[in-house]
Design brief:
Layout: E1 3-8, E2 15-20, E3 24-29, E4 35-42, E5 45-48, H1 56-61, E6 70-72, E7 78-79, E8 83-86, E9 89-92, E10 97-98, E11 101-103, E12 113-119, E13 123-132, E14 143-152, E15 156-164, E16 171-173, E17 176-178, E18 180-181, E19 191-194, E20 198-202, E21 208-214, E22 222-223, E23 230-234, E24 244-248, E25 251-257, E26 263-267, E27 275-280, H2 286-289, E28 294-296, E29 302-312
Antiparallel strand pairs: 1-2, 2-3, 3-4, 4-5, 6-17, 7-11, 8-9, 10-11, 12-13, 13-14, 14-15, 15-29, 16-28, 18-27, 19-22, 19-24, 20-21, 20-23, 23-26, 24-25, 25-29, 26-27
């Protein structure tokens, strides 16, 4: 077979590696359910485009250190004071806060079960699943979240997340995830382009004001030198499948979210060695402002998919 799946159980939680011979591999953690390394062969060397953890132990010890690769569920980015109202009842999130606001959901440190693995001549995949029991008082709605990671030819990695629940009424939900990408060098030398002309205006605490502003900053390729970002953009509604392109020298990362991810959060950390490009189904604080918030009916699956392709261009 051209593809294979390997599982390493020598640490507290397994590491699953999807491989396409010596050309490409993806390292998936059962802790957090995320990709910790996406390594491709290019220019006679190997490049890992994910700024991840050094080990499972490090991820367990400090999952909130930059929230590297964390899945954001059931809300994305910030929630004002960790509070929202739903069905005439007030809720307040217990989980992690930055200053006064709850951030990045409540399952970023969840442990996933390996449900299925598959390898053949076309792909390698692993399916991971976590049962959230409703233990956070701010979100007392049990649900099941499943991530299927799939590696295909030509350095193509995708993740499809399925959310389903069996509460007796619809519940509010937003999905996202928080990967950091590095193509070598510093972000100041990277070029970024994505299909959007709309930015969500933030206040001084990085919460949306409710205004959507026009911007053409990244409609064309833009050098990131001295540009500091912690912003959310609404992807184009006129492009069939909006994309995001990150380029450094001849290495190109292309992100293809489907329609379930209409927002892109972009964050440049102070160290400037990587950049977070976060696909979101709902904007920050969407439980309060409604931007992208979904109400998921009982037993109805909501599916969110995005994919990543790394190439060495002649550009």
């Amino acid at each position: 077979m051209l593809f294979e799946v390997n599982s390493n159980t020598q640490q507290q939680y397994p590491i699953i590696t999807l491989k396409n011979g010596n050309n490409c591999s993806a390292e998936i953690f059962a802790f957090g359910g995320f990709v910790n390394a996406f390594t491709v062969a290019t220019n006679n060397e190997y490049l890992n485009v994910i700024d991840g953890f050094s080990s499972v132990e490090e991820a367990i010890k400090n999952p909130t250190a930059g929230f590297k690769s964390s899945f954001l569920s059931p809300f994305t980015c910030r929630m004002k004071n960790g509070e929202f109202k739903f069905d005439n009842k007030a809720y307040k999130i217990d989980k992690f806060y930055l200053a006064t606001h709850a951030i990045h959901g409540i399952v970023f440190d969840a442990v996933y079960d390996i449900i299925n693995t598959e390898a053949n001549d076309d792909k390698a995949s692993v399916t991971l699943q976590h049962q959230y029991n409703g233990g956070d008082r701010g979100y007392p709605f049990p649900f099941t979240i499943t991530h299927e990671w799939m590696l295909k030819a030509n350095n193509h990695l995708s993740v499809s997340t399925t959310f389903i629940h069996s509460n007796n009424h619809a519940i509010p939900y937003a999905q996202g995830w928080h990967p950091y990408f590095t193509l070598g060098g510093l972000v100041d030398d990277y070029i970024l382009q994505f299909d959007s002309n709309t930015i969500i205006e933030f206040d001084e605490t990085l919460l949306p004001t409710g205004k959507l502003l026009l911007t053409n900053q990244f409609e064309k390729e833009s050098l990131l030198q001295n540009i500091v970002l912690d912003n959310c953009f609404e992807l184009s509604k006129t492009v069939v499948q909006p994309k995001c392109v990150l380029r450094y020298k001849n290495i190109v990362l292309t992100i293809h979210p489907d329609a379930s991810y209409p927002f892109l959060q972009v964050y440049t950390p102070p160290h400037r060695k990587s950049i977070a490009l976060e696909n979101l189904s709902g904007a920050p604080d969407c439980f309060n402002n409604g931007l992208g918030l979904r109400l998921i009916e009982p037993h109805a699956s909501a599916i969110f998919t995005t994919s990543y392709i790394v190439t060495a261009s002649n550009h």
